[in-house]
Amino acid sequence: MHTTRNSSIVVLLLLIAGTALGVVGVVIVERPRPSGAAPSPIVGWTNSVLRYEFTDETACGNGNYEDTSYVGSNYGTQSVGAAIATWTNDGVRGPSLIFDGIDDYIAMGVGDLGFATTDDFTICGWFKTLASNENQRIISMGNGEVSSSPQVFIRVGTDEKAHVFARGKDTDNTGYRKGTANVVDGNWHHILGIIKGSTDTVELYVDGLGDGSESGVWTATNLTNTVIGNLYPELNQEMDGGLDDPRIYDRALTTGEIYQIFLGD
Fold first, then answer.
1. Would you say residue 6 lies in a domain?
2. Are 43 and 265 in contact (CB under 8 A)?
3. Does 222 map to a domain?
4. What is the reported pTM?
5. How many structural domains comprise the chain?
6. pLDDT band at 178 (very low <50, low <70, confident <90, very high)
7. Which residues contact 199 (CB under 8 A, 6 or more apart)?
8. C-alpha pair distances (Å), 99 with each of 57, 96, 211, 230
9. Is 259 helix (H, G, I), strand (E, B) or coil?
10. Residue-number span of the structural domain to which 188 is assigned
């Protein structure tokens, strides 16, 4: 297996003590991303409630997707009547899925994950796309665009930025954060959203780093219809590009854990 992520750049400030001259040098060292299969256990293993690694070509070929989280029972299924997302070896650490931007999506095998009003939880995944003609859902939870229904999602917007969104029972209980960097460039990017019911905030992380937060989030539960790669039931925010390693955790990950996921765990 291999990695297609860009290498991180670590800037080391080295103070070089010379006998004749004192020199302060800035040395830029390239640190390659880890390659190969992700370590086990994964970050926050016991708090992981959903994870699709897309590493089994046979499973991807018949539309059934194994849940490799701690819970291990939230299997994903390609929607009846939809085309099967294409398996490819051009993923973050090997295999991944390519969604066609038309009708590909994966429905989680259960309904509500049981998050309470004051709970914190995390949703994240890898994506790459060159399309910006419509919004593209990476993970979507809730009942579509009905303004009175709870909904949570991470997506790529038509503004070519990463988005995290959480809405409670109405539009007055909404937290919506849009990123600052252009992520529609054909490269792999990691998007992560933290929904904090405990503090009524949403936080956005892109490629392992914080990209802001907003207050005023959901005040309701019943987040049914968890879907990967689309909006349910409208099915009008299709992913057009690659998706890899979507995950859901039943707590807020720390900044260290978030960066660790970006590095390859």
1. no
2. yes
3. yes
4. 0.80
5. 1
6. very high
7. 215
8. 15, 10, 26, 10
9. helix
10. 38-263
